[in-house]
């Protein structure tokens, strides 16, 4: 009898622990951003959307990024949210197996970004495709009818072939294949034209390339300073995060030190193709020389608040990449067109009402 009671008690205990975990896994509703802390999705799992970007469609935000759970086999995850604090995992929208068969086995995905094409009604995914050694350095493009995918692979390319002072030897094979395509972002302008902005020439120079009507390839024929341009030539800027405010183009970028953080740069241009003028490091306070130990991935415009933006960065943890954290910080333009990004342990969207 004693033994029976013991067994029943153990079963009851296990059951209540399981129920508690289940209930706990729903996660409490969030109403604050806590930069650098583990960020759980609505099912209680740590969000995997590194090097990501966000779009807003029909009052729903979609956050796409790298799921780093498997180091050399990153996938593209998608989360949705109505309030930017609480994110529901919508699934893996693109994975290695969805790539063209010639590159399927050994290619991984970095810095995926999705934009919506109002003309075609398609969601277009661009990503940096890479292989061991980081010499593959190509753009991958995929499309979907729905924000939650699945995305269908279109092509992999080096978008621009340009005669610059090629390094010799050049393991990136740029003379033959075109300039490298690594850290990248996308930008849709008010007139519906879209641009890919990416680190090229082995990261020495950023390329800004206008896309075709479908957003699936560069606009043809390519014409330097008309349909595409080199910017920050020889400056080794990467992790580009473009945005627009009062008819001017802005770009936050990082230096080029791999997973190690460095100082951000904030630049402005009247024309997206340049010339770009650097205004220095937009961060202030402790850790500002390391961008608060983060690297830019995108800047989000706060709807209904034209002067308000959110800096989104990754605090990479190279030893434990899936445990890399998200650094989201608010900023506003001052009357002189300047910005200052400061550290906050926690904050909410009321910041922008002040
Ligand atoms: C960084 C880049 C990351 C990743 C990393 C690999 O410079 O921003 O996206 O590629 O290098 O070392």
Helix-strand layout with pairing:
Blueprint: H1 2-25, E1 50-57, E2 60-67, E3 75-81, E4 88-94, E5 108-117, E6 122-130, E7 138-144, E8 152-157, H2 174-177, E9 184-188, E10 194-200, E11 205-210, E12 228-231, E13 238-245, E14 248-254, E15 265-269, E16 277-278, E17 283-284, E18 295-301, E19 308-315, E20 325-332, E21 341-342
Parallel strand pairs: 17-21
Antiparallel strand pairs: 1-2, 2-3, 3-4, 5-6, 6-7, 7-8, 9-10, 10-11, 11-12, 13-14, 14-15, 15-16, 18-19, 19-20
The site of beta-D-galactopyranose (GAL) has 9 residues, from strand 5 and strand 13.
Provide a concise account of the structure shown:
The protein is mainly beta. The chain has helices at 2-25, 174-177, and strands at residues 50-57, 60-67, 75-81, 88-94, 108-117, 122-130, 138-144, 152-157, 184-188, 194-200, 205-210, 228-231, 238-245, 248-254, 265-269, 277-278, 283-284, 295-301, 308-315, 325-332, 341-342.
């Amino acid at each position: 009898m004693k033994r029976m009671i013991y067994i029943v008690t153990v079963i009851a205990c296990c059951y209540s622990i399981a129920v508690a975990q289940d209930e706990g896994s729903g996660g409490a509703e969030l109403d604050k951003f806590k930069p650098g802390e583990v960020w759980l999705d609505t099912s209680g799992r740590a969000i995997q959307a590194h090097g990501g970007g966000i779009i807003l469609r029909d009052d729903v935000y979609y956050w796409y990024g790298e799921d780093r759970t498997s180091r050399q086999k990153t996938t593209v995850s998608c989360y949705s949210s109505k309030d930017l604090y609480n994110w529901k995992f919508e699934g893996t929208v693109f994975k290695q197996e969805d790539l063209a068969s010639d590159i399927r086995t050994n290619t991984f995905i970095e810095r995926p970004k999705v934009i919506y094409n109002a003309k075609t009604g398609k969601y277009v995914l661009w990503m940096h495709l890479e292989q061991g050694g980081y010499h593959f350095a190509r753009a991958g493009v995929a499309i979907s009818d729905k924000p939650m995918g699945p995305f269908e692979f279109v092509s992999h390319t080096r978008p621009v072939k340009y005669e610059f002072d090629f390094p010799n030897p050049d393991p990136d094979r740029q003379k033959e294949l075109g300039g490298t395509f690594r850290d990248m972002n996308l930008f849709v302008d008010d007139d519906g034209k879209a641009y890919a902005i990416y680190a090229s020439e082995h990261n020495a120079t950023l390329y800004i390339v206008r896309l075709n009507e479908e957003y699936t390839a560069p606009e043809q024929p390519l014409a330097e300073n008309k349909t595409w341009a080199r910017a920050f030539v020889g400056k080794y800027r990467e992790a580009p995060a473009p945005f627009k405010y009062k008819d001017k183009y802005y770009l936050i970028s990082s230096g080029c030190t791999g997973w190690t953080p460095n100082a951000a740069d904030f630049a402005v241009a009247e024309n997206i193709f340049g010339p770009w003028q650097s205004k220095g490091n937009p961060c202030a306070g402790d850790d500002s020389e390391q961008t608060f130990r983060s690297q830019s991935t995108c800047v989000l415009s706060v709807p209904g608040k034209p002067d308000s933006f959110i800096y989104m960065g990754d605090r990479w943890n190279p030893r434990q990449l899936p445990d890399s954290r998200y650094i989201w910080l608010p900023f506003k333009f001052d009357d002189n067109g300047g910005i200052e990004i400061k550290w906050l342990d926690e904050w909410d969207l009321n910041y922008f009402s002040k």
